[in-house]
Amino acid sequence: MFRLSPVSGETTLSFLCRIAARYGLEEKALLSCWRWRGHRPQHDGGGLRADAEVLLDAAGRRALVGLSGARDETLVRALPSWGREDSSFTAVEDGVARAVWRVGGAVVGPVAFGCRLCPARRTGAGVRVVRYAQRWERVCVRHGRWVLDADADQMLEHLDLRGVPEVVAQRRWSGVARRAARAGTDAGEVFALAYAVVARWWEGAYGWEREETWPRRLHQVAGGNAGIDLEWWRVVGRDAVIFPEVVTVADALLDPVMAQRVWADSGGEHPRPLPADGEFCRRLGERVGRPWLGPLAAADYGGPLLAWMGTVIRRRRHPEGRPGPYARFDENLWWVRQEHQPPSMAAQLRVLSKEKKTPGSGTNRRSTVSAEQRFLIENLIGDAEEQLQQLRGAQSGTTADVAQYLLQGLGRGLDSLDQALLRITAAAANAGVPVDDVARWARLPADAVTEALKAYRDADDQYR
Questions:
Q1: Which superkingdom heads the taxonomic lineage of this protein's source (predicted)?
Q2: Which residue, 138, 182, 194, 262, is the most exposed by fewest CB within 10 angstroms?
């Protein structure tokens, strides 16, 4: 008999599948040792869910102990769903091993793939592992991998982080978690708030003309170039790409000095509206390596960051707590409202799939460009159109006068179109589209596009 130990946090189904592989059996053959209730969870498209889980009754657990050769205490420590029974199990002890199908997220919590290289070091075989893991536990520091959610209908199990060492920030998060514990705060709640803040920034980053870090990281985790699958990679790579900023924001939100800056920005004992150039948002932008981000963060009035700042201010002004139905939420500094919680990768992929299947409803890049940029681009194109329309009927007078008028009008129209082209190019580059693709669309050399973007950003920085 073989002896196989579970990976810490592994789903019971994942452990069963690894046992079957160790014995050289098909999964169905091993699973037939239990009497099953319900059906194995599937995606809408019919594929089997990798995050499926099983609950075993007492007889079923004894059967698994016998098959694995592992001690019961080991399974209790390693398998989070071990010992959780279902109401469908009968109390009759007839010796029949029973099992029921469930979805892992509904049993314990978030489910992710494990790093195949980790168990391979012990067993010599790189088989798939599925385990319960929070988002701050997704980095395999040893092998430079980010393990992905297992509840989505997609084939990738991990992202390669070897080109983005700053994402391997697992040790940095451990320090933040210890700081939260010393402050008597739940580290998971702190992470959830910071994650909501940065994920909201991620959605608005299409309009950040000076953002260069996230597009670079995204292309690197995509293998060097996201290409035409940019929208898909933005969904799949989001959590890995923004992880360093999430850790930094979590650390900042735990800092009493930063909370004091919020209080000072609010006017302290003399209340005033939070300014767009407040010290807190300015310093937060500097901490995440974006000194220009402060005013953008301060202007996001409906986001989780401003909600947190509001709670800081209310707790200072009403230390005894506010009366009313929302008092308990006001007292929880780390509460993330439902509307502020970022959509999961699985939910976003379902939306993306529906958009691709529905004619004419592809991903709307126009909506991801800021309203200000759209307004400027549309005005420039409108100016060019107006200049060209004015040339019609302008063929009276001497040949020299007509030629001069036509050339001047064409020149002004072309200047407007050049400016529009430059702004569109900058918006595409900021969205993460590779420069080579942008150059091909604009019918310009890649070097010329790179130089134009650099000059554009330099001019924009000087203007600001």
A1: Bacteria
A2: 182
Distances (CA, A) of 53 to 49, 344, 359: 9, 19, 36
Q: Are 54 and 100 in contact (CB under 8 A)?
A: yes
Q: How far apart are the first and last CA of the chain?
A: 71
Using an 8 Å Cβ cutoff, are 138 and 240 in contact? yes
* Coil vs helix vs strand at 99: strand
Cα of 422 vs its chain's centroid, Å: 29
Domain boundaries, the chain: 12-133, 145-345, 369-463
Cα 122 to Cα 206: distance, rounded to the nearest angstrom: 44
Instruction: Supply the mean pLDDT for the chain.
Output: 84
Instruction: Classify residue 350 as exposed, middle or buried by CB count within 10 Å of its CB (0-12, 13-18, 19+).
Output: middle
Q: Which residue do the tokens 């969205």 mark?
A: 431
Note the maximum CA span of the chain: 108
Closest to 211 in 3D by CA, of 279, 305, 285:
285
Asked if residue 15 lies in contact with residue 74, where contact means CB atoms within 8 angstroms, the answer is: no
Model pLDDT for residues 26-57, shown as the tens digit of each residue: 999 999 999 999 999 999 888 999 999 999 99
Per-residue pLDDT tens digits for 422-459: 777 777 776 667 777 777 766 777 777 777 777 766 66
Per-residue confidence (pLDDT) for residue 362, from 0 to 100: 45
Question: Would the pLDDT of 4 be above 90?
Answer: no
Evaluate whether 200 touches 279 at the Cβ level (below 8 Å): no
Closest CA to 227 of 405, 81, 440: 440
Whether residue 88 contacts residue 100, with contact meaning beta carbons closer than 8 Å, is answered with: yes
Q: Residue 116 is which amino acid?
A: R
Who's near 366: CB < 8 A, 6+ residues apart?
374
pLDDT of 417 above 60: yes
53: three-class secondary structure by DSSP: strand
Among 104-113, 169-178, 268-277, the range of highest mean pLDDT? 104-113
Of 58, 69, 57, 63, whose CA–CA distance to 22 is shortest?
69
DSSP assignment letter at 263: H
Cα radius of gyration (the chain): 28
Structure tokens at 71: 């001690």
Handedness of CA 392, 398, 399, 404 (dihedral sign): negative
With CA atoms as reference, report the closest residue to 164 among 242, 101, 257.
242
For residue 73 the two structure tokens come to: 């205490």
- Look at residue 294 and give its three-state secondary structure: helix
Residues in the chain: 464
Strand 35-37 relative to strand 98-103: parallel, antiparallel, unpaired? parallel
